[in-house]
Write a structure and sequence with these properties.
This protein has 387 residues and is α/β, with parallel strands linked by helices. It is built from ten helices and twelve strands. Strand 2, helix 4 and strand 3 form a beta-alpha-beta unit. Helix 3 crosses helix 6. Bound molecules: pyridoxal-5'-phosphate.
Length: 387
């Protein structure tokens, strides 16, 4: 791929079959456990793919696409986005280590750290997402890994990655960034110095809410190899049917992402003017506390944002959500359909974000923005928050 090509062009062409005669546009799915070799000498040749668990030509193509996306040296695919995070952490952590985790990291990742990793004698410390250079004060002799997510889940804080990387590099600490929100299209943590970027491909790369998957992209061959060996040890394996679907998602992701992101900005701006709404948490809005860092490090925004309603009963919040006709009440995002959740039940933090009202998260789909806005308006007005 030519370096100066735009991402949409690259993703339309990457990993396609070599054209012969009557060649299909897409690579075929190969479902395998056993792989056969003409020569016995090849059975133990580690340079070859020896077994179905180690992927197929379609997963090679998807890995190549993720490397192109993040400008990485190697990619490992996983069965889910959560598995991408847990596998990366395991690749760079051992018993007796101390790891630092951004307090607004995805709930599933927190659960893994608190309930699983801790069993192996790893000391987990959460830090305020906006800590920036203050990370220096938390680094210990045994800190092995810093886990970031920018913007953070539900509350959308932006980590100052360059400031954190500066100290991490000095102390040879691995930085892992969950880059799901940006799909890798508008934020490149590896180019900002991080060692590993992870993705819940379940979101934008599936794009249709029907496939789960994850990807771990490493900045150097050394990091990529550590991840690959950990994946091998853990028996990591991804369904080739799912891999095929995720590669298909790559072909159209730029167009879908841009439209969904545009819808999110429009709805965020509109909600910010509503009397029922106290605050809107969207990093592209100048009112967002980390807007300046977002502007410096990102080239665009994703499809999810949150907003805070004026203080009201839980019953009102549930009424508001139940009245919506176009927003599905469900977790995840990045699909063609818009989704909404109330976040308070999920907010498990060491540092209380203190919103002063119920927090709602929206994931914008591909519906027309006017219809989505109208749906929100009708529901806000009918819910009568003020009585
Ligand atoms: C930021 C982030 N990372 C990781 C995950 C986990 O992805 P998956 O659902 O594919 O396990 C999610 C899921 O919502 C997420 O929002």
């Amino acid at each position: 791929m030519k370096k100066d090509m735009k991402k949409a062009t690259k993703f339309a062409h990457i990993g396609r079959p070599k054209i012969g005669v009557s060649t299909s546009v897409n690579l075929p799915i190969t479902r395998s456990s056993t792989l056969l070799f003409a020569k016995a000498a090849d059975l133990y040749n580690d340079d070859l793919r020896l077994y179905g668990r180690h992927g197929s030509p379609v997963s090679d193509a998807l890995e190549e696409a993720f490397c192109e996306l993040e400008n990485g040296a190697g990619c490992t695919l996983t069965s889910s986005g959560l598995a991408a995070n847990t596998l990366s952490i395991q690749a760079f952590t051992k018993a007796g280590d101390h790891i630092l985790v951004s307090d607004s990291s995805y709930g599933g990742t927190r659960y893994f750290c608190d309930n699983y990793l801790s069993k192996f004698g790893v000391d987990i410390e959460y830090f305020k997402p906006n800590i920036g250079k203050g990370i220096a004060g938390l680094i210990r002799h045994n800190t092995s890994c810093i886990l970031l997510e920018s913007p953070g889940s539900l509350t959308l804080e932006i980590n100052d990655l360059p400031a954190i990387v500066e100290y991490a590099r000095k102390h040879k600490i691995t930085t892992i960034v969950d880059n799901t929100w940006s799909a890798g299209l508008v934020y490149n943590p590896l180019e900002l110095g991080a060692d590993v970027a992870t993705h819940a491909a379940t979101k934008y790369y599936s794009g249709h809410s029907d496939v789960m998957g994850g990807a771990i992209v490493a900045r150097t061959k050394l990091h990529a190899n550590k991840v690959r060996l950990t994946a091998k040890a853990l028996g990591n394996c991804v369904s080739q049917d799912d891999v095929y679907q995720l590669l298909r998602g790559f072909r159209s992701v730029v167009t879908r992402f841009n439209q969904q992101a545009e819808t999110a900005v429009q709805l965020a701006k509109w909600l910010a003017k509503r009397p029922e709404v106290q605050d809107v948490r969207h990093p592209a809005l100048p009112s967002h506390p980390d807007h300046k860092i977002w502007k410096r490090d990102f080239s665009g925004a994703g499809c999810i944002f949150s907003f805070v309603l004026n203080p009201c009963s839980e019953k009102r919040v549930l009424n508001f959500l139940d009245r919506l006709k176009l927003f599905g009440k469900g977790f995840s995002f990045g699909g063609y359909e818009s989704v909404i959740i109330h976040c308070d039940p999920q907010l498990r933090r060491n540092f209380d974000p203190e919103f002063g009202g119920p927090l709602i998260r929206i994931g914008c789909g591909l519906e027309d923005v006017d219809d989505l806005q109208n749906d929100l308006q009708v529901s806000l007005e009918k819910t009568k928050f003020s009585d």
